Amino acid sequence: MIEGPTEELMSDDLSAAGRTFEAVGQPVLVLNDVTRHFKQGSETLEVLKGGQLQIDAGQIVALVGPSGSGKSTLLQIAGLLEPPTSGQVWLAGRDASRANEAERTRLRRDHLGFVYQFHHLLPEFSALENVAMPRIIQGASKVEAEARARQLLTDMGLEHRLEHRPARLSGGEQQRVAIARALANDPALLLADEPTGNLDPETGHRVFELLMQAARQYGLSALIATHNLDMAAHMDRRVTLHDGVIVEL
Ligand SMILES: Nc1ncnc2c1ncn2[C@@H]1O[C@H](COP(=O)(O)OP(=O)(O)OP(=O)(O)O)[C@@H](O)[C@H]1O
Ligand SMILES: [Mg+2]
User: Fold this and answer.
1) Shortest-distance atom of ligand 1 to CA 69
2) Ligand with the closest atom to the CA of 74
3) Cα 56 to Cα 70: distance, rounded to the nearest angstrom
4) Is the CB of 73 under 6 A from ligand 1?
5) Domain 43-119+175-248 has CATH 1.10.10.10
6) 0.85 surpassed by pTM
7) Any idea which ligand is nearest the CA of 47?
8) What is the pLDDT of residue 6?
9) Between 20 and 30 A from 170 (CA), which of 3, 26, 131, 145?
10) Domain map of the chain by residue range?
11) 68 lines ligand 1 (CB under 6 A)
C-alpha cells in the first residue's frame, strides 16, 4: 500500500495551493487499490480490481492495454469525473475520495488538464479564445489568459492560426489546440485518452512529439492512454491493466 500524504501537508485553501505539493516531494497522483464495478441488471461487471499507481512530478506514464481493459475507466477516475467503487484517489496532495463535489471541481480546475481522442473545442470560438477560456474560468484576466494562450499555441506551432475557428483547422491542428487548452490552467497532471487516435500515423506522430515537448517544457506529469506502442516506448513508464489490476510493465 502506498501511503497518502499526511494531513498537515494538505492545504484547505485549494485555490492558493498551486503546485506547492510538488515542492514537498508529494506525488501528483496516487491510486490506491481502486476498483470500479458497473451494475448491469443482476450482473456486476468488475472492470477495475485494484493495484497501485503513483505518478511523481514530471513523470510521463503510458497506459496501454487491449480495448475494453478499462483504460478510459481508469482515466475517468484519475480525473475525478467518476468515483471509484472502492479505493482512494490522491491528487495534488489531497484525498479526492473524501472531497465533496465542489472540492473535486476545484481540484480538476486547478490541477488537471484533459485531452481526448476528439478535440471537443467550442465551435463558435477562435483557437485563441478556446485556449484562453480555462484560465479565465480559473479567475485570470482576459489579457493574461490570452497572453498565455498565445504562448501555448505558439509552442504548438499554431501562431498563424490564432483567430481560426475549429471547423477551419485540420484534424492535427484541432488536436494541437486541444492540447494547448489542456495546458492553459498550468495543470500538474495531464490526462489524455488516445490523444492521437483520430489522426493519420504521420500527423499523430507529430502531435505526440509536440505534446511530449510541451509536457517536458512545463514540467507536467501525464497519464496517457494509447494503443500506439511506439509512443508508449517514448514515455518514462508504462502501466497496463491485467484482468483489471494496475501493473507496471
Ligand atoms: N458506464 C458504464 N457502464 C457499464 N459498463 C461500462 C461503463 N463504462 C465502461 N464500461 C465497460 O468497462 C469495460 C472497460 O471499458 P473502457 O472504456 O474503460 O475500456 P478501454 O480500455 O478504454 O477500451 P478502448 O481501448 O476500446 O478505449 C468495457 O467492458 C465497458 O463496456
Ligand atoms: Mg478507451
Assistant:
1) 21
2) 1
3) 22
4) yes
5) no
6) yes
7) 1
8) 44
9) 145
10) 43-119+175-248
11) yes
